[in-house]
Design goal:
By secondary structure, the chain is α+β, with helices and mostly antiparallel strands. It folds into 2 domains: 96 residues; 145 residues, 60s Ribosomal Protein L30, Chain: A, CATH 3.30.1330. It contains 7 helices and 5 strands; from the N terminus they run ααββααβαβαβα. A 5-stranded mixed sheet has the order 1-2-5-3-4. Strand 3, helix 5 and strand 4 form a beta-alpha-beta unit. Helix 1 packs antiparallel against helix 2 and helix 2 packs antiparallel against helix 4. The longest helix has 94 residues.
């Protein structure tokens, strides 16, 4: 009888232990899922922080450019005010005269018309500069959105004095001393091409840059040759693989003569080895403003 009770007790303890172990494993699995979710959210937050820092730098660059343009507009405005003041003084002097000739009256009329035309021209410039700022900012945001969270050391997009620059490190584009574009780079160039293709009026130039280490080997003579071959390799891919209009592209080699950093350090050399896409300003549209308007 006692043996029966003892066996029953052992069975009860075993069942209790089994249930507790199952609950523990369930809770442990839930904990692991929560920890994985936390790590994912932490990573997303870090990426958002990096993107915010990039946008902050772009905003500061645009604000500096806007301040420079505002200064230029102010100078033109001061010139207009100066001309107005001189003409007002001239008119005051004429009021003291009893008679003015027809030629003098016509000269005064033309001077006043010129002042009005210059004032209208300044207003047009202001509108065009504001429009250009908006278009450049939209282009930068489209490029950043297409490329995604690629390391800022490998690709950098910025606006400087109204021109959009896309700098791509040669570490991403080419193998050392080579002008053959890597498969990874073709993927990045495809994303850039998608944005540029949506704005067919845009013209751009691809510039090749090297460090100051002399080029040796192969059929190329020097860093001039290497930089040109790298630029033409990129435009050839943009044309033949991604269908961009070759009439809107130019290829140029800068060699080692437009460095971003000091070539005396390893990091400086790495920064100087790059390919730059320069979105060219639409000068024909700007000069069109200077043409006399037909009535």
């Amino acid at each position: 009888m006692k043996a029966t009770y003892f066996i029953a007790a052992i069975i009860s303890v075993s069942l209790f232990s089994c249930v507790s172990s199952k609950k523990f494993k369930t809770k442990e699995a839930d904990y692991n899922k929560l920890e994985e979710r936390f790590n994912t959210l932490q990573k997303d937050m870090n990426e958002c922080g990096e993107e915010k820092a990039i946008l902050t730098r772009q905003k500061e660059a645009l604000e500096r450019e806007k301040a420079l343009m505002a200064g230029q507009i102010k100078d033109l405005g001061d010139q207009v005010e100066y001309l107005k003041a001189n003409n007002n003084a001239a008119l005051k002097q004429l009021e003291d005269l009893s008679v003015i000739t027809a030629a003098q009256a016509e000269s005064i009329k033309k001077s006043m018309e010129n002042i009005g035309a210059k004032d209208a021209y300044i207003q047009t410039l202001q509108q065009q500069m504001a429009r250009k700022d908006s278009l450049n900012m939209a282009l930068v945001m489209n490029l950043k959105g297409a490329i995604g969270n690629l390391d800022d050391k490998d690709i950098n997009i910025k606006v400087d004095k109204g021109v959009v620059y896309v700098d791509i490190s040669d570490k991403l584009l080419f193998k050392s001393g080579s002008y053959d574009v890597t498969e990874r780079a073709k993927e990045v160039l495809g994303k850039v091409a998608t944005v540029l293709k949506n704005q067919p009026e845009i013209e751009f130039m691809v510039e090749g840059h090297t460090d100051n280490v002399p080029y040796k080997g192969g059929v190329l003579l020097d860093n001039w040759d290497l930089s040109v071959k790298r630029a033409t390799a990129v435009v050839r891919i943009l044309q033949k693989q991604y269908g961009l209009d070759p009439a809107k592209m130019a290829a140029a080699g800068r060699g080692e003569y437009k460095p971003l950093e000091d070539n005396s350090t390893r990091e400086g050399k790495a920064a100087n080895r790059r390919t730059r896409i320069v979105i060219l300003p639409q000068l024909d549209q700007f000069f069109k403003l200077l043409e006399p308007q037909k009535n």
